[in-house]
Structures are given as C-alpha cells and as structure tokens.
Amino acid sequence: MARSRISGIFAVLLLLSLLFAPLANAQATRLSIATGGTGGVYFPYGGALANLLSSELEDTEVTAEVTSASVDNMYLIESQDADIAFVLGDTAWDATQANEPFENEINGVALAALYDNFTQIVVRGDAGIASVADLAGMRVSVGSPGSGTEVIANRMLEVSGIDPESGIEVERLGVAESADAIRDGNIDAFFWSGGLPTAAITDLGATPNLEISILPHGELAEPLGEAYGDFYNTATIPAETYPGQTEDVEVVVVPNVLVVNGEMDEELAYNILRVMFDGQAELAAAHPAANELSLEYATQNSPIPFHPGAIRYFEEQGVTPGGTPEATPEEG
Prior knowledge:
By secondary structure, this protein is of the alpha/beta class. Helices cover 39% and strands 20% of the residues. It has helices spanning 2-25, 42-56, 70-79, 89-97, 148-159, 175-183, 199-205, 221-228, 266-278, 280-286, 295-300, 308-316; strands at 29-34, 60-65, 84-88, 108-124, 139-141, 169-171, 189-194, 212-214, 233-237, 249-261.
C-alpha cells in the first residue's frame, strides 16, 4: 500500500515536471545592437533603443554593443553576430554592392532611415586650417578603422587632391580618442561623422585655454556625389551647437540607416519599428537625434531596400517606402 502511494506521488511529480518543463526551459530571445564608440551618437541612441525593446517586446533581452561603427557593423550583420546595426548610408550601400572595402555582397536591408550624420572636421584654432585642402601635411585622425567616418574622410581627402595615406600624417582614432589627442596637442584636426551634438566635441569645446573650430566643407558634396554616388547632401550645423561656435557651418551630411539581416523574422522586424515609433519620446530623452525620427524621413532616405516587416509597418501607417505619408482627412 505504501509502495503504491509512493508510486502515485512520483507519477504526479513526473506529470507536473512535464507540464512545466516548457516554461522552465523557455529562454528570452536575445538581440544585439551594433552601435559605435562611446563618444558618439550611435551608442547612447542604441542603448536607449535596447532598453526600450527589452521593456516592450515580450521575452526579449536586447543589449547595445560598442563597435568601430559602420563598416564593422555591416560585417556583424552579415555574420549575424549582431541583429540590428546603426550604419551610414553610403557604407550600407557599398556593403550590399560589394564595393570597396567589402569583398562580397552583404545581405543587409533597412528598417528605417534615422537622421542625418553631419561630417564634422574639428581643427585646432592655431593650426592655420581654413579648408580641407589645407589638411595636406597635417596630423589628422580619419576615424576608427572600420568606421563610416574613415570611409567619408578618405573620400573627402581624395576629392580635395590629398592622398589619405601619404598626404597627411594619418591617425585612426575614435571620436573620444581624437578629442583627447587634439586636446593634448598630438593632432591638428580630426574627422567625425555623427549627429548633433556629439558629446566628445562638446566636452572638447569646453576645454579651458583651447580654441577649436568646425571646418566648413559643403562644397565637397557635389564632387563626392560624382565620384561615389548620390548619398551626399549639405546641411548647416547651427551656431552655438558647440561651445565657442559663433557661426553656422555648412557641411556634408549622410543619412543613418538602421540595418538588419535580410533573414530576420518579418514579425520581429515589424515589432521593432512599432516599438521605436511608439517610444520615440523615450529615445529622444537619451539623445536629441531621435527627434528626427519620422515616417517621411524613415522611408525616403535609405539607399538600400527595406525589410518586408518594415514595409508592412510603414504601409499600415499610410506611407510607402520611397513615398510620402497620406494626408489624413480633416474631421467635421
């Protein structure tokens, strides 16, 4: 009798273990966002996006990873070591077309265009630099290896008649390291492609007894477009964006694109966009670049095709990628 009762208890325990095994074994979906260096915009924007997605997507944990930015991020998308990546539009296009520095086509597609990256060339006030051509022979950081900044810096130097390898004393530093180097007198100028404002440049501009300026170079947009493709426009960095900046500065801009692998699940891609647009205020609280997120910008400024999940989301909002939002009928 006792043995029968014990057997019954074991049977109940076995049944319970089978019933609850799926719950015990269930694991949260883990996603990784490839961003950039800690001194730029990608990292705080990506960190805020990771927190937002983690809180709003059921059973999903999302982390933001520090990377060398655009070029490396496209490789991470191809290998699927990252699920989402911030990438400059020209780099995203090059990756999907197997243009240099990419040897093979990368299966990257867009969720949305996010905001314009401003190409910011920061120079020491005492270096006598008034144009990109004046960088010849100077000590210049062109950005981290594997970054979109390095790509556009090299292209700007080339269209200005400067060999990026032999025409300058080249350094390859991230924005935070570049700011430190100019502060310490180790370089004369550095390139940075990022949103406004960039924290590392703000901190640099506030350094006592150090004068810096942002070099205007909007005239390079046309030769860049002729040489490399129709990705380059101009925009103005408004006066007072950075400490000591008293005038507007016209510079070259490139759109930023949120990129995923073409094999991402359609429902997941759809939900990432839904959460982003619903939580835009939370993203903007982390960095003002997120204020630029809009249906019109998101759908008109990507140089690469959109993921099917993104297309479904945008069409439900009344906009087709490449088009403009439908007018909402007035009430009454």
